[in-house]
Structures
1.
Amino acid sequence: MLLAMSSSTDPQPVPGGLVWFDEPPPPRATEQLSREKVVAAAMAVADADVRGEVTMRAIAARLGVRSPMALYRYVGSKDGLVDLMVDEVYGEIRVPASGDWRECLRGLGLSAWEAVQRHLWFARLAFSRPPLGPHALATYDAALAGLAGLHQGPTVRMGFIDTVLGQALGSGLAMLEERAMRERVGLLTEEQLAAAARPYLERITAEGRYPHFIEWANDPRRFDPPPHSFEQVLEWLLDGLARRVADRT
């Protein structure tokens, strides 16, 4: 997830900039506006939108500000706002200080999954900007420290961390897109989706096509217990990482 550090001593321009780079301080907070209030309002707007979208106009309306342009003084740009929003969610992720690498990764994964479910838009925006804010760096630093007992180099430890965080973000992105799709086509519940799909499934069942899929689709126990929960997939990932550790030692 983190970008690679350049070995060059020459500063490299970053397209779109990051709010953390040579950031001018935001203006003094007023009763109505501050950086914290703008970011909190943006997150609330994104949380409420089915696609997790946010506009400066919607934020201004939420804050009771007449001109959306006034918000830019506090966040620099729309990209700067994204940097700040993403970093706030990283601040909600907790890394347990257990001393056991597997417990550390399990706690990281579960905490990240809880944060992603609260803010599904984070799953998309986290891939759009390098995670270099103070909360993101603190999260990665704590996770790297929690994996010190592996006696593996930082590259291997970061790979383990990215594997777990990537599962949380990928699962959240799938949930966000499915939610938007259901809203768009009007199939908001599993029952509605099942009713809409039933004639098609009956037809391909009668045609004898895709027999293995049909066997699964017609199994009344296919969701009992719920398969592939995040918690279950996380354990599979940890099992695989544990095997890699055993092989290397």
2.
Amino acid sequence: MNPDLLAAIIIEGQKNIRNISIIPRDYHFEDSLNYVLVGLRRSGKSTLLFKRAQDLVNKQNVDWSQIVYLNFEDERLDGFQLSDCNNILIAANQLTTKKHYFLFDEIQNIEGWEKFARRLADQGESVYLTGSNSKVLGHDIVLRLGGRYMAKYIAPFNFSEYLTAKNISHDKLALLDTVNNGQIRAVANEYLRYGGLPESILLSDKRNYLTNIYQNVFLADIIVRNKIRNEKTISLLIRKIADTVMHIVSYANLYKNVKSVINTVSRNAIIDYIDYAKEAYLIFSTKNYFAKFNERESSPKYYFTDNGILNLFYIDKLPALLENIVAIKLHNKYQKKLFYLKSKKTGVDIDFYVPASKTAIQVAWEVNDTSKEREIGNLLKLADNFTEVENLVIVTHGEEETIEKEGKTIQLVPLYKFLLE
């Protein structure tokens, strides 16, 4: 691969990135670390690379000539091989001999790319990588790169980013303005149904776009990557998992439900397929804080990483979408330190528990006379039997109230406020 051609492509990339308008996102990068960005397809990994380049130039006095961006899906790089990688360094040094910042998109297209990435890290270069989930996954990427890179999970837009992208103010003063507050509530309903994939925001046909993204994740990141022959089985399994949102489900139950339709499936295959869906960042799970280790692993609650994709499986299941969007916000912040609470001994049944903030959260579309006793009763029962919890919250679709009962305070928080906390 000719170094002069690479230099020309790098210069073109510098010009393109300079002129891109990007929504600020809440991600921080340490200057001393190298990163590989992972997450669901189309969640904004490449755009975050561009933002990192802009910040280096605008905030740290890096010159544009130091930014070395290459997208290995560029047809001009077709046939690029590992032996060509050193020419990237030659091309970069043609532009400047100052320190370089390497940003590589879809680097998995180079067979053996890990060797080059490790060499750059060993030489003290600053490197940022993204790749298709079909070959570059956060669960094994750190090991494959010899511990020289940090995996950073990139989620779809959170609600604040979603509002920013739609040019809707959402600071404290904006929440007090009647018109603006109404806009925020309306957009919260849109976000609830269609999720936060960045490219979907301004599209009129969001459902068709989300269908295409799901098919890409399903086929490329699950079926092709894992060489699955029985496509129908895993398709049915994912549908069954969508039906279980809000509920605890065991491997045994999922196996039983799928086997009733496709009797050739094995229990081990079901466990593997669930892992594949997790590795593709399609789903995640929470575990019972009160359970023993083996029970935690075998009886989780599953959620989807984007509400828009989950909603493809539904006709009208707003309560499930509400719980899923709450799960997404909490999972993006706390990852594996998010749990649910279920105790046969005390009868406690709580949707979410965050040990870090000592907070227990119930989710209810509305707290009416029928559900009020159940939701509040569960939280009070928890507070009486579990001294570690200090904050009791019920996330609702639109209700807001402070309830004082039995010496305990329970906050009812509407969805839009919870998402902006």
